[in-house]
Amino acid sequence: MQEYMLKVSKSAEKDVARYLALDAAPSHIRLSTLAPLSNWGYPPESQAAVLKILEHGLVMGQDGGKDEAPHDFVPWQNIAYLSDGSGLFREMGSGKR
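Below the sequence we write its predicted structure tokens.
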């Protein structure tokens, strides 16, 4: 399995909160996949985001109207789990390990 930290875009907030049974969406999620995802086409220092959750999976790409990176569809069959990643993201950003 591979694990990724993805930002939650404004357009995906409601669906992410519903899937995680939260009142408000987290700023980031941890996504674990069975097969690895590619970061081909993402500019250096860019951050992937969940753009939309659909019936058969989720769409990821760059948030904020930046379409420099390709949009990728990840089917539910490749997703092991989604979890709230906000706390871990804050820890990683503050230098705590």
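Helices lie at 13-19, 86-93.
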